[in-house]
Structure formats: structure tokens, C-alpha cells
Amino acid sequence: MIMERITDFFAHVKDGNILNILILAGIIVVILALTILIVALVSGNKAKKNYKPPVADERIVLSVPPEAALPTTPAGSLRFCPKCGTANSNKNSYCTDCGTKL
């Protein structure tokens, strides 16, 4: 029964019936679209499974050149905190960052 219908359909396509040709073209387009969709879904899942987040070594690290790190001050005018290492003025008795006695 189904084979007869398919054979009859292709016989009409052979005869040049434009409606049957358009139906056949539509069926082919739908089959191709489904195939492409399935391939995209399958390959997309593989990409997600293989994803690895970057580790610390692969991240971008911004650094400041040593000469730009600290403002220029006269020699001996700074004292560094023994606890946190913050540069403090000689006038300060306590660290401006952590409050430790200098």
C-alpha cells in the first residue's frame, strides 16, 4: 500500500506535476534541516563535556613596574609596617593601614 503510494508519487513527479515537485523539495529540505540540527546538538554536547575552566596560571596577570609602584620620596622619610608592610611617614607612630605600632 505505502510502496504503491510512493511509486505513484514519483510517477507524478516524473510527469512534471509542479505541486508534487514542490512537496518533494520540501521533504528534502526538512530532512536536511533535521540532520544538521542533530549533528549540531551532538557536537555541542561534546564541546560542553570537554570544557575546562582556566587555572590560575592561564589567567592574565597585570603588574605594575617597580618604579611606578611607590611614589618617589626623600630617602629615610618612610617607615614600613612590620606586620603588613605598608609604607608610612616617619611622623606616624602607628601604621595607617593596620594600626600596628611602628
Provide tags for this entry.
2 domains, two-stranded antiparallel ribbon, 3 helices, 49% helix
What helical percentage do the residues reach?
Answer: 40-55%
Fraction in beta strands: 5-15%
Supply the number of structural domains. 2
Tally of helical segments: 3
Mean pLDDT: 76
> How does the major sheet shape up?
2 strands, antiparallel
Distance between the termini: 99 Å
Instruction: Please state the structural category.
Output: mainly alpha
Give a brief description.
It is built from three helices and two strands, in the order H-H-H-E-E.
Description:
The protein is mainly alpha-helical. The chain has 2 domains: 48 residues, no CATH class; 28 residues, no CATH class. The chain is built from 3 helices and 2 strands, in the order H-H-H-E-E. The chain has a two-stranded antiparallel ribbon with strand order 1-2. A hairpin with a 6-residue loop joins strand 1 and strand 2. 1% of the residues are buried.
Detail the topology: elements first, then pairings.
Layout: H1 2-15, H2 18-49, H3 66-69, E1 78-80, E2 87-89
Antiparallel strand pairs: 1-2
Helix pairs in contact: 1-2
